[in-house]
Structure formats: C-alpha cells, structure tokens
Amino acid sequence: MCGIIGVTGAADAVPILIGALHQLEYRGYDSAGVAMVVDGGVWRARAAGGTNSVSALAELAQDAPTGHAAAIGHTRWATHGAPTAENAHPHIDCTGRIALIHNGIIENHAELRAELVAGGHTLTSATDTEVMAHLIEQGMAGGASLTEATRSMLRRVRGAFSIAAISADEPDTIVAARHSTPLVLGLADGMALLASDVPALIGHTRQVFALADDELAVLTPGALAVTTLDGTPVEPELLTITWDVEAAQKGGYEDFMSKEMHEQPLAVADTLLDRRGAGGELILDEMRLSPDDLRTIDKVFIVACGSSYHAALVAKYAIEHWAKLPAEVDIASEFRYRDPVLNERTLCVGVSQSGETLDTSEAMREAKRLGAKVLVVSNVVDSSMARAADGVLYTRAGPEIGVASTKCHLAQIVALEVLGLYLAQILGTQPVSVTNEILNAMEVLPGLVTEALSRAGEVDQVAAKLTDARDFFFLGRHVGYPVALEGALKLKELAYLRAEGYPAGELKHGPIALIEPGTVVVGIATRNPLWEKMMSNIAEVRSRGATVVLVADDGDEESAAAADHVLWVPPTYPLLAPVVGIVPLQQLAYRLARLHGHDPDRPRNLAKTVTVE
Ligand code: F6R
Fold first, then answer.
1. What is the pTM of this model?
2. What CATH number does the domain located at 3-248 have?
3. Given ligand 1 and candidates 260, 261, 331, 353, which is best to mutate, with the most ligand atoms within 8 Å of its CB?
4. Which residues of the chain fall below pLDDT 70?
5. 256-452: what fold?
6. CATH topology for 456-595?
7. What pLDDT, on the 0 to 100 scale, is given for residue 336?
8. Domain limits, CATH 3.60.20.10, in the chain
9. Which of 442, 408, 412, 423 is nearest to 313 (CA)?
C-alpha cells in the first residue's frame, strides 16, 4: 500500500506534493519521491529515510524548481525491492523524459522486464513498477501521445495498480489510471489533482471524484477528462467530502481497526498476487531460499507471538497435511530457553507483522546459531528480521496502525498456507491437481472475507445481547482451535473481558468446571471432519447452562439448532476456513469494546511493536 499524489497547474507544485505526502504517510513511508516536468526534461528527488522518508525528501527538495507543470509524488510501502532510494518512485524511462508512480503490484513484471532488457532498455531498480515507465517510452518512441502510450502499457500489465505518468513532451499533462487500488481526483484554483486517498486533497478541495476500476483520467490545469481504459468517455460525478484529515486517513471509518478489518480482502488478495507461474505452479521468487535449499528439510519449526502465533498454529495443520512434514509451533519467548532440537535440515519460520518483535527476532537468531535455515514471514519489507533471515516471505497487508492485528493476521495465515503448498510442491507430496484446487479456493477468499465483513450488523446484534457477560470461553477443534485462541485474544485485548481460548475436546479434562449459567461459549462450528465431535463438546457446555454462540457455515441449520446465537460465515475449504471464520470474532470483540466504552485503536497497556523481552 503506497500513497500517490499528482498536481498540474499549481504555482509551486513541489510543496503541495510534500504536504500531501505527509498526509499519506499512513499508507507507507519506506521511501518518498517527487518528479516534475522542468525545462524540457524531468526533475526528480527521492529519499529513503525510514519512518522519516517524507521529511528527508522535503530537505532534499528545498531548492526544487518552481513552476506550474505536471508534478507527481509517492510515498512507498515496499513490496518488490528493498526500501532504498534506487527503488523509490517516481521511476523514469531510459530517456529521463517520462516519470511514473504506482501503488499496487504488477504480477507479470519479470517477463516484461526480460522483454525490455532484451530490447535494449536499462532498468535501474528492483521494483515491479519501473517496467511501466519503459513500456510508455516504447509507445511514445513509436509516435503515441502520453495518453495513448499509457493505454497500450496498461494492456500489457497484469495486477493491481493506481498509476500516474508525466512526460517532458506534454509538460502540463498527467495521465492516471487504476485497477483494484484507489485513486481520487479533484479540481481547485486552476489546478487538477490526483491522490490515492482523500486526506491528500482535503487542503485543496473538498470536491473529489473517485476513479472507478479500469478508468483512465487525463489531468490538465483546471480540467479532468475521464474515459474507460478502452476510451469510452465517463462523466465525473463529484462527491463532497465533509471529513477532517484524521477522519479521512481512517477512510471515513470510526477508527483504524474498522478500516483495517475492511482492508482484509485486499490484504489477502495482495498476499496471493504473482505467486503462480503460467502453468498454475507456485513460484516464490522473493523467498531467497531455493527449491534445492528446501528439498533437504525434514522438519519445520514455526515461532511467533500473539496473533502471529495463532496464524502459525493454523499453518501447522496445513504443512503437516499438505507437505507431510512434522511442524512444531512455539511461542517465541519460550523457544530459545528450552534447548530446541534443530539442525541444518530444519526450516525455522519466524512470523512477525512488524519484523521487529524482540522475542521472535531473538528466537530466529538462536535458530540460526543452531544451524537451521531461517525464513521470516513479515509485513514490513527489510525489517530487522527480514534482513537477518536466510529467506523471507512478505505478507502484503500495508501498514497496520490499529494495535490489535487484523488484516496482517489474515495475510499471515494465507502466506503460511502458501508456504505449506510450496513445500508440498517441492517435496512432491500432493498431486498438482490438489495444489491447484486449493490455490483456486484461496483466490476466492477475498470475496468470502468481503461477504463475512458485510454481516457486521448481525454481529452487533449478538454483541448487544452479551454486554453483561464477563466470562467467555472460545472453543474450536482442528484449525478452529487457533481461531478460538485468536477470538479470545481479540476480546481480552480490546474489550478487557476474561476470555479463554481452548481446544474443545480438552475442556472435559478440567476447565468445564468453570462453565455455569451466564458463561458465554463461542464455538467454531464451521464444517470440517471434526464437526460432529465439536458439536458433542458444545452439547456438553450447553447442558451446563452456557450461552452458546456458534460461528457456522451459511445455511447450516444443524449447527444453528445447537446455538443461542449464530455468526454466519460463507463456507470454504476446511484448512482455509480460519481466514473467514475469524472475521465475525474480530467484529464481536470490536463491538463489545465499543459497548464497554473502550477505544479499539489504543487498548490499554499494549504497544504495536514489542521490542522488550
Ligand atoms: C494482537 C497483536 C499481538 C501481535 C504480537 C506479535 O492483536 O497484535 O499479539 O500479534 O505482538 O507482533 P508481530 O507480529 O509484530 O511480531
């Protein structure tokens, strides 16, 4: 998730760009850059200053040229290529006369890069974006306008994008387009502006137009012309924005947690993007560990904390089932103090949204010392853990600001399950038809998560009936067990309610003594081979007076008959069910937090990144 901004017709464009980039920093800040048409060429400044990239860029751009020509800016959340100045946007073509910014992921960048290099182009970054500047160069070299060359370029790329391009040949024009990622446009005082999101435009205009998927806009001073990608004109319908900047950064949601829950379908989709080759097989190029490195693996250890640990528990089931490898999961703060038995045939996977959690990074260091191959699943490109590991697999959820992990948790489950399938592919433990079937099922998960999110109103009704409850048990079996753990964690940290996640079959060995009228039992009852056993466990608590809330597959009346309240979810492949099943539990915790008067973005006593033992 990057932030993009563009303006044409401004008296002094660069300060406008920098101001807007500050408003977009919540979308990422690994690097920042601006470019502008000046004196028949393109002037550009870029900086990679960690969390201060936009400020570092402002320093660099102090003596930027002034002028009202087309100008574009970018703040980056790195996906392809490290967060360095070379990989910072805007990217330029070989002639230095075209510049382009991009938010999204281009899936077929590798084949386009190979084609461009064979055709004599020199690419200077490791990004997926740069190919687009060179494809526009090719089109313009053949006599096309910037608009036509951008249109032809867009016919060649596959993936998700919001882009904006400028060219020294058309000094006042910005051409912008989108597919899957957001782009808003606005007009103000003889200017035309574009941005990834409304906060960047609010200081200039409150009348904005949200470009729809597969539309292209040509911005000239004081004017916008919008067409579909194939050229049919579109009449822009302006919206009036009434939010302040903070509300706009939250995308109109009440808080970051709500916004991030709604970004979950995109986080899942982006984490899956460009993982499959032409024959449908998995290709994990970014991982740095080769298939040969992984072929010798005879055991997988996964180490993590909190919600990341729960994602790891789901992966255990997937890796053992698909790759037939023993998979052990450990809490990072325990792992390194208990003489874990690892060697060079062990793959040790650290899972960390931030890539900075001290317990996990120290566990990874210990695993490396013991000779294991170390792979990190991280959301932050070039995080400390990503740098120290032998290999890395990125979740692509964009920055997560709410303290409680939501979209990163879903992206972690998906990334780890992709890893499980990849190991199965390398070790030949599953027929290709099976891995393809699962990958196809994964690709429809974003739609199922969207559907689950759309039922927030029903979850709120259930939450309203539970406001007086103080004791919750979350029960699950198989992959429903980690969902139960995660549901309980969300409720504890957000609503400050006592909630215990437990394997449903284990309850009878002790904790069932705590069940009494008034105890709420939330059961994960989506269908899997253990569903009948799960329902017996639910009967055990119901007969002892518990109020039963079940997460159940749509239309499953047998589950519903055993519950006081049902949280319905669309069904999916059993091993993928946690990705959908956790959604109503996030919503339940969120709503109970609100009903108890707590701010879900800032739970007490917690920090987003825990860098102490
Ligand atoms: C819970 C939560 C935490 C984190 C944990 C690990 O909602 O967010 O439990 O999952 O602190 O953090 P990372 O993944 O950054 O290592």
1. 0.80
2. 3.60.20.10
3. 353
4. 611, 613
5. Rossmann fold (3.40.50)
6. Rossmann fold (3.40.50)
7. 84
8. 3-248
9. 412
Write out residues with Cβ below 6 Å of ligand 1.
Answer: 305-308, 352-354, 357, 360, 404-405, 489, 493, 609-610
Confidence (pLDDT) at 493: 96
529 contact partners, CB below 8 Å, separation of at least 6: 478, 574
C-alpha distances out from residue 134 to 72, 129, 230, Å: 17, 10, 21
As beta bridge partners, residue 332 has: none
Count helices and strands (H / E) in the chain: 21, 25
Give me the pLDDT at residue 245, please.
Answer: 72
Return the ligand 1 atom nearest residue 304 CA. Answer: 16
Give 200 Cα–ligand 1 centroid separation in angstroms: 30
Determine the atom of ligand 1 nearest the C-alpha atom of 408.
14
Q: What is the DSSP track for 281-324? A: -B--GGG-S-HHHHHT--EEEEEE-HHHHHHHHHHHHHIIIII-
For ligand 1, atom 5, which residue shows the shortest CA distance?
306
Contact assessment for residue 608 and residue 354, using Cβ atoms and an 8 Å cutoff: yes
CA atoms in the 13 A half-sphere facing the CB of 168: 15
Residue nearest to atom 11 of ligand 1 (CA): 306
Spacing, Cα 112 to ligand 1 middle (Å): 37
Return the best residue to mutate from 260, 261, 302, 305 for the ligand 1 pocket (most ligand atoms within 8 A of CB).
305
> Is the Cβ–Cβ distance between 52 and 30 less than 8 Å?
no
Query: Among all residues, which ones are annotated catalytic?
Result: 2, 608
Please give the pLDDT value at position 581.
98
